[in-house]
User: Fold this.
Amino acid sequence: MNVAFVHNQTGEEILITHTDDIAGLLAAAQGSAITFPVGRFKYDYHTLDYYAEEGIMMHELVIYVEAI
Assistant:
């Protein structure tokens, strides 16, 4: 599944990745901090988004984070 990390205030996509371990990634993201090359963040909330791409229904986990 595709996973996008998004800044909750600006809507900027920080990272888009793919994983087969959604539960593990989500649990890790809910830890005390997530470090990206653009800074340190903490988990705020997540959503599961569905969208059509070239006529095919896709889904994506969006993890919203805030700067710390």
